[in-house]
Structure formats: structure tokens, C-alpha cells
Amino acid sequence: MSFKPTLSTHLAQRLVLTPQLRQRIEMLQMNKLELSDLVTQQLGENPVLEELAPEEMSVSPELANVDFSENPHGTLSSVGEVEINSVMQSGDNAGGDNYGDNYYDSATGDLAGEFNRGDNQSSDSIEAREPEIGERDSFEEIDFGSTFEEYLDPGYRTCEAEVRETPSFEQFLSDEGSLADYLNWQLRLTVTTPDLHDAAEAIIGNLNDDGFLEGTMEEIAAIGSWPLVAVEEALTIVQQLDPTGVGARNLQECLLLQLDYLGYRDHLATRLVREYFQKLQNHKLPELARDLAVAVEEILDAMKVIRRLEPRPGRKFAPRAAQYIEPEVYIEKIDDDYLIRFNDDGLPQLRINRQYRQMMENKETSKETRDYIRDRFRSAVDLLKNIEHRKQTIYKVCERIVERQRDFLDFGVEQIKPMMLKDISEDIGMHLSTVSRVVNGKYAHTPQGVIELRRFFTEGMTNDDGEEVSTRIIKLKIRKMIDAEDARNPLTDDQIAEQLAKDGQKLSRRTVAKYRDQMKIAGSRERKQVC
After folding, report:
1. How far apart are CA 500 and CA 494, in angstroms?
2. Concatenated DSSP letters for 51-107?
3. What is the pLDDT of residues 492-527, one digit of tens each?
């Protein structure tokens, strides 16, 4: 059997994810801090980009009060609340053709042109095209003096420079000590042999944030080849340190260590924890009283002692990781209207470096240098275009959220309306995944506080009056019922469902239990308290 080379043609469709489109998708799901990191990285990698100085970010008075909503296809300037009709004003180019007029696409708010010829049909299929032999590269025809004027010229400058408030040194806090540091400090004050000291340090190093030991004695012994007896003795030393209960291997051992330290070794509470811990967790008081041949009141007294113990002894030393939340937009009410304002504080503001434009115009610049600058120009414009696209998309989503959730912004969470991602997707004419990327991890400063955009979206159900009610309102009602219940006789899921049915919301017991679990509220048996 022989094979012969042949030529054939075929037609196929495929999705092309160019670097520009990939960057646009990634930037949509970035929050402000991540976007700032990306811009800072691009500033270091692309010499064509440069950052505006703080004193160059002032906006002329005639632009200060322009409303972005008047022209939804416009773009935002370096100051988030100010609209400029066209960030990249284009004029007549050097060749006398009409290239500059079609560089900015007012219908979509995107920048178009010879930086990316693949954009003329769809922004989702972007491919760079090399000029054919004998064809004139349209990149040479761009009038950089007019195309990039807005990025090159900082515009009107006021005499007063903006004064930014910075934190003083008195507000800086020292590093808080960890549980391991506190235990090692106590261990150094304890008289032990070198082997026991090293084994105890290994045990401390294997404690989690709650103070419980993770790992078996054999695993600890294998770390330093210590005898198992020495490791167990070292564990006893660690369990005698403060806070009491640290070094326990489970909750039961943690409670027993604390009861022994408090002098309850022969108390009923110790026996309950040691021998009937499972029934104690399930609040099976009659069974406990029958098994121990004591009155229920004695069981209740012992439970009072147990409730005063600390189930997580290392909690106060646990690292409190700071979660930095910075609002992406400000939704402010002025008179009877809501204004959406971007928060660009701390975000580097970019423009094209004028010197590289001059190098492109210089005929003495070598071809290699011109090719490099050309590639950097393309990358810079793609970045600026994607930043503007991100702002416009976020603005459109926030605008629709304000329209649909105005009652919530005016009166609070009890007035929130059911809203799905597909509702906003249909309103703004974008794909559902695009809206999902926009609302995920981004926060808005509203009259009701700083809220994640995704929190505005909730499912709903229809009540007896035919009105659609948000499930978040139902959860809020369940929480209020539980907060107002009698601690000695808490409400069951059936009782909660009955009360909701009286208000016109018919839910099954299973649905109430599901909503309660989502709010991380224990069942009625676990909530029952002993007075």
C-alpha cells in the first residue's frame, strides 16, 4: 500500500481568541485591585505607555458636569465621573483619506481601524493581518498627532495640585503574634530535655488555627526520628501550656483538658463529655438522664459548665487575613436621580508617550525600531481600548441594576426584587457570561452600604397575591423569626413554614430547612438553650 501527497481544500468555522480578545475577557472579571496590578505590569513592559502625573489629571471646568448617561456610547476620561465624547479624537490624516473618521466606532463604543483590521465584522474574531507584497501598510498612514491627541495632551491644567491624604506613621500597627509564637515562648521557659523540646516544637508547628493537632503521633515522631514515648510526653507538655485545651486532637479531648484544668475531673460534666459525648451533641437529655440515673436538672447544670468552655482555644490567636474591598463604582442619589460614578483613585492613568510617536515620524529610525514601536503601539491601544470597554460594560450593568432595584436603594433590603443575570443580559444585549464576569467580585458603594454587584441578583417565588418575592426577603423573615424566638423553646422548621404561610408565602418544611442551612443557622434542637 502506497501513500501519495495530495492537495485539498475545505471550509470550516472556528472561534479565534486573539490576545486582544483574551485580554478583554480577563479584564472584565478583574476587580479594581487586580486591574491596577495589570496596568502597573503593562507600564513596566510597554515603553510606549506612560502614567499621567497627579497634577496632570485635572479636568477642564466645561467637562466637569457632563453626565455619562446622556451618551451611552461615549467613553470615560481618567476621572471616572466625567464623560468625554471621544477619548481618541481623530482628524484628517496625512494621506487625506477618511481613516481618522472611522477609527472610533460610536455605535459600539469601541476603537476600530488598522490596529486591528479583523474588528470590522466582529470584535470576537480578531486576527492581525500582515500586509501583502506590494500593498501599502495602512499603519504608516495614521496621523498620530490627531489620533492619540487625547492620550498625548493632558489638557487643561489647574494651578492647584491635588492634595492626597496619606496615613500617618501613628496609624501603622505592629505584626500580631501568632499562636505558634506564643506557645514557643512558653516552651522556652519550660525545663525539658533537648529531644522533648524539639518534639514539642514539631507538635506546635503542626497545630491549626484553632489549636488542634493535625497529624498522628507516628507522623510527628517520623519528623525527627524521636521515640513514640518521647512524642507523647512532648504532647503532654504542649497541652499544659496556655491557652488551655491547645494541642488536643479533637473537640472531646479539648473539652476534657479544660475541665481537668478547672477542677471538674470528678464532675458530672466530665463524665458526660468522656462517655456520652455523641448523645450530648444531639441534646438527648432524657436518654442521658436515664443512662446516668440522674435527674434532668442535674444534666442541665452540667451542660451549663460545658457551655462556658472554649471549643476553639486558638481562636484569639488565629490570623485575621485582611480582605481588601474597594468599591468599583459609587451609586449616589442626587435629588431624585441616581448618579453612577467610577472610583479611579489609585488606578494608574495612561497615555501614549510622545517621544515614541516622534520616533515613528522620524525617517532616520531603522526598520527594526519602527517595527518594534509599531508592535508596542498596537499593544498599548489594545490595552486602552479594553479598559474603556470594561468601564462601559460595568456602567451599562450598573445602570440596569439601578433601574430594577431602585426600591432597594431607597428603602433597604426588604424591598429587593427578584432579578436574574439573564434579565440584565437581555437588557444590555450582551452574553450571560459577560454579565456574570462583570458582577463577580466587584463592589458598589450604595446608600445601603458597600454591596457586591452579584448580591443584587436573587431568585424569587410567587406569593398568594401573585407578586414575585425575592428569596432573600424570605430568608430575612426566617432569620428575624429565629432571633425573636424563645431560646428555651425554639421554633421548628414546621412552625416557621406555618408562620410564613400566614404571610402568603407557602414553603415546605424541607425548603425552610434548606434556607436555614444556607444562612448557617442550626436546627431547633441545637439552638435550644439551658437557662
Report:
1. 10
2. EPPGGG----GGGTT--GGG-TT-EE-SSTT-EES-SS-----TT-SSTGGGSEETT
3. 888 888 888 887 888 888 888 888 888 888 888 778
b or e along 108-129 (b: 16 or more beta carbons within 10 Å of the residue's beta carbon)? ebbbbbbbbebbeeebeebeee
* Four-residue CA torsion sign, 29, 30, 35, 37: negative
3-class SS shares of the chain: helix, strand, coil, % to 5: 50, 10, 45
Q: What is the largest CA-CA distance in the chain?
A: 103
Q: How far, CA to CA in Å, does 472 sit from each of 179, 400, 415, 430?
A: 38, 20, 10, 26
Share of the chain above pLDDT 90, in %: 27
Reported as a single tens digit per residue, the pLDDT across 438-492 is 998 899 999 999 999 988 988 777 766 666 677 888 888 888 888 888 888 888 8
DSSP state of 456: G
At position 505, the amino acid (one-letter code) is: Q
- Given a cut of 70, is residue 39 above it in pLDDT? yes
Q: What is the mean pLDDT of residues 87-107?
A: 35
The three-class DSSP label of residue 207 is strand
Judged by DSSP in three states, 250 sits in: coil
Q: How far is CA 506 from the centre of its chain?
A: 34
Which residue did the predictor score with more confidence, 356 or 526?
356
| 443 burial via Cβ count (<10 Å: 0-12, 13-18, 19+) | buried
- Give me the mean pLDDT over the 6-32 stretch: 85
**In the prediction, which pLDDT does 242 show?**
92
Sketch out the chain's domains with CATH numbers. 46-159+345-386 (no CATH), 179-317 (no CATH), 460-527 (1.10.10.60)
CB–CB of 276/291 below 8 Å?
A: yes
- Helix intervals (H) in 193-250: 194-205, 217-224, 228-239
- What nine digits make up the cell of 138? 495602512
Question: What is the full DSSP assignment across 470-512?
Answer: EHHHHHHHHHHHHHTSBTTBPPPHHHHHHHHHHTT----HHHH
Top mean pLDDT of 88-97, 134-143, 326-335 is at 326-335
8 Å CB contact between 226 and 195: yes
| Separation CA 143–CA 100 (nearest Å) | 8
Q: Which residues contact 111 (CB under 8 A, 6 or more apart)?
A: 88, 103, 104, 105, 381, 384, 385, 388
Assigned C-alpha cell, 139: 499603519
For residue 96, CA distances in Å to 99, 101, 111, 142, 348 come to: 8, 11, 20, 10, 35
How many Å from the N-terminal Cα to the C-terminal Cα in the chain? 92
pLDDT band of residue 207 (cuts 50, 70, 90) is: very high
Above 70 in pLDDT, residue 13? yes
Residue 475's pLDDT is 87
